[in-house]
Amino acid sequence: EGCGASPGLNEVMFRRTMLGHLVHPSIRYGLLLEHGCEKTHNDYMSMHLQTMGASRDQFGWASVQLDGGIDAVTSKVMSWFEKKIQDDAASPHQEVEVGLEHVRLGLFTSPGSSISIPMARALGHITRCIVDAGGLVVIPQNASLLQTWTFLNTIDANSSGKITTPVMPSLGYGQAPASGEQGGFHVMQTVTDHHVETVTGLGASGVEIILYVTEQDTRAIQTHPIIPVIQVTTTKTKQLGAKPADFEDFDVVLEDEGTDEDARVSVYVGRLLSVVSDTLSRRYTPKLSVNYAFQIARDSLAIST
Fold first, then answer.
1. pTM for the whole structure
2. How far is CA 82 from CA 29, 31, 93, in A?
3. Could you give phi then psi for residue 129, rounded to 5 degrees?
4. Could you report the average pLDDT of every consecutive run of 10 residues in the chain (305 residues)?
5. Neighbours of 247 (CB within 10 A)
6. What angle do CA 269, 270, 275 make, to 5 degrees?
7. Which residues share a beta bridge with 254?
8. H-type helices in 8-51, by residue range?
9. What gap in Å lies between CA 265 and CA 140, rounded to an integer?
């Protein structure tokens, strides 16, 4: 952000996003590097880490100015990580089998795009399966899925078709659920429709995998640097002129015709839960994992100097 940045919501969004990634379960080692004169300096971050229940001792700390310049601080940072990796090698990690209660899913559909009834039902069933088991599902406020009554009424068995839009956010942009809250269904605030900014915010919320679904766009999106993003489409896009090559970047291509609706929903649920399981178990790596980006949304009135 440079030496100065807008206070208020913009500062909060930046801080939440950075610290949310720092304490993310996928991060084994984290080090904070300051220039030394910025507003969000190391002491600032340390103070807010403590309010999140994290210890300063969990992380590394370095400063371009205090540690003697670029070359000196680079050497310090590299040495810190090398020692951490060396120390950790003495106690290898063991893999264990877990259930849906440990799934932390981000669910994202393109802003402004339509979602078919079978897909909305399938995504609703997946959401219910994970949340009912004790897992977490976070959907960004700009997702078109939240404008789809079929989805909303599928996830709420007691709604009797009475849920209406809009659904209001339960989390701020880049905000994780309250400490101690392991599961549930949440909507994350968004201030733009930018795909990368949305995925970045979801990453800070603590989700460990993101499911991106589109039935109207033949282009996959850029992914996240540490969180796997599974990209899903259907053959419905052929009606929009999609060619076989357009499907190459998608991890899952579902058939949009040939079976009745209930059967199609069942197939969708099975395929998507299977690829989520395979990805979290490291049996599958999403195709565009190397084509990632990281960009934090700004408040509408924010500037930096």
1. 0.90
2. 11, 12, 18
3. -60, -45
4. 69 93 94 90 94 92 95 97 89 84 95 91 96 95 93 75 68 88 90 95 96 88 96 78 79 83 93 96 94 88 61
5. 17
6. 100
7. 234
8. 9-22, 42-51
9. 23
